[in-house]
Write a structure and sequence with these properties.
It is a single chain. The protein is of the alpha/beta class. The chain has 13 helices and 13 strands. It folds into 2 domains: 169 residues, Aspartate Aminotransferase, domain 1 (Alpha-Beta Complex); 234 residues, Aspartate Aminotransferase, domain 2 (3-Layer(aba) Sandwich). The strands form 3 sheets. Strands 2-8-7-6-5-3-4 form a 7-stranded mixed β-sheet, sandwiched between helices. Helix 5 links the parallel strand 3 and strand 4. The longest helix has 25 residues. The structure holds pyridoxal-5'-phosphate. The site of pyridoxal-5'-phosphate (PLP) has 12 residues, from helix 4.
């Protein structure tokens, strides 16, 4: 297969990958199902869940001098380093929050309140966690809010549309790495480069919650000031949002205990399991990388692993769209419409927005559920969807988000079920 159509894992590796996750083929009651809502919370790695329980079972306070406390400090140090491995970040501060939204609000606040300027720039495709934070501080501080519109043809936001809003008075640019409706990846490298050509010391924060489990992030290539991930959407556990802030952003005034160092961001007692789970995620992606490279360097293994995940997911996306001789893909199925269907699959994460003629979106989701498939309706009445749908000119969509632990047989099953739903 060519790079643009992706490349599947071989069958043996695919089976090993699936076996590492919980509840892939059956729900918690043992009922067979296809869970295609991984953008709302992904399959958990068995190792992450086990490690979460083992570390959280330890009563010891890490801020002590005894042996077990020192062990917990090492768990935190390792997880901190592993977040840097995911991002290819050097320096800066790692921040363990309870949610990705919480981390984003804190990063936006520190920058909006303390960096001079008269406007804040963002996009219509942001999740409310970043959009509402930017809007809130724009209002509170009397700064202008500038919002770049989406491009319905690509499902993303054009670089020009964002960069045209940036000027010498921009306090902050906040931008999502990939849309959690269309799956479109924004060209973050070009956005950062061109925005900083206008304002060289521009502060930039990136919401990487959607993109991080699906592709490479490299802050050495594309330096930003703040970025967050949600481990529960990245094969890990709920109750944790991890962020990294640059050296200069880390020392901006923010909520912290007065006695802590100026660049310290954790507020109160961080949970060691949050860090342990990041390490399990990185171990897993490195394990995939190790199937393809002899390197023992952790970032090299991670890069290889996440690139292989990306290629496999692209092949699944291609299969979803175009099917095979035996099973027609979504693009060919009568009564099925694929929204925001940009041709270049290399610019898309494994997420699809579809509609089925004659079926209201929530009704379609129910019909899927009756046939053992979990997908998600994105409708304009939802605060999580309205602005993005409006920007695309869509009334709604059924979001379909499998994961790399799925194989071609899962996709074909979904296609056959879609055919039944469309004809129901
Ligand atoms: C793109 C994106 N950003 C941020 C968030 C917020 O994550 P959390 O639920 O951890 O606050 C989500 C969650 O849906 C998301 O999809």
């Amino acid at each position: 297969m060519t790079a643009s159509k992706g490349e599947l894992f071989d069958g043996a590796l695919q089976a090993q990958i699936k076996a590492r996750f919980l509840h892939v083929d059956h729900d918690m009651t043992g009922r067979e199902r296809l869970f295609f809502d991984n953008a709302g919370g992904s399959f958990r790695l068995k190792a992450a869940v086990e490690r979460f329980a083992a570390i959280d079972a330890v009563p010891d306070n890490p801020e002590r001098i005894h042996e077990v406390a020192v062990f917990l400090q090492e768990v935190q140090a390792r997880g901190t380093q592993d977040l840097r491995t995911i991002l290819n970040a050097e320096g800066g501060s790692v921040y363990a929050a309870l949610t990705a939204s919480g981390a984003m609000f804190d990063m936006v606040r520190a920058i909006a309140e303390n960096v001079p300027g008269t406007n804040l720039v963002t996009t219509a495709l942001e999740h409310p966690s970043s959009f509402d934070a930017v809007q809130l501080y724009a209002q509170r501080l009397g700064k202008e809010l500038r919002v770049a519109p989406a491009n319905p043809a690509t499902g993303g936001v054009d670089v020009d549309a964002i960069v045209n809003l940036v000027d010498a008075d921009t306090t902050l640019l906040s931008v999502i790495y990939a849309s959690n409706i269309s799956g479109a990846k924004l060209d973050i490298a070009a956005i950062v480069r061109r925005a900083r050509a206008i304002k060289p010391d521009l502060y930039i924060v990136v919401d990487a919650v959607q993109h991080a489990p699906h592709g490479l992030i490299d802050l050495q290539q594309t330096p930003v000031d703040g970025i967050n991930i949600a481990p529960y959407k990245f094969f890990g556990c709920r109750g944790s949002g991890m962020a990294w802030v640059s050296d200069r952003a880390a020392v901006l005034p923010h909520h912290k205990l007065a006695g802590k160092k100026p660049n310290f961001w954790d507020l109160g007692s961080a949970a060691p399991w949050q860090f342990a789970v990041v390490t399990e995620i990185v171990d897993y992606v490195c394990w995939i990388g190790g199937q393809f490279t002899d390197s023992s360097d952790r970032r090299t293994l991670f890069v290889c692993g996440i690139e292989k995940i990306e290629l496999h997911e692209r092949a699944l996306l291609s299969r979803l769209l175009d099917g095979s001789d035996a099973t027609p893909g979504l693009r060919r199925l009568p009564r099925v419409q694929v929204f925001l269907d940009y041709e270049d699959l290399a610019k898309r994460d494994l997420i699809l927005a579809i509609g089925i003629a004659g079926l209201e979106y929530a009704q379609a989701v129910r019909e899927y559920e009756r046939r053992g498939v979990i997908v998600y309706e994105r409708v304009a009445t939802s605060l999580y969807s309205k602005r993005m749908l409006d920007s695309f000119g869509l009334a709604g969509a059924v979001r379909v988000s499998p994961l790399h632990c799925h194989g071609v047989a899962d996709i074909d099953r979904f296609l056959r079920i879609t055919q039944q739903v469309a004809l129901a």
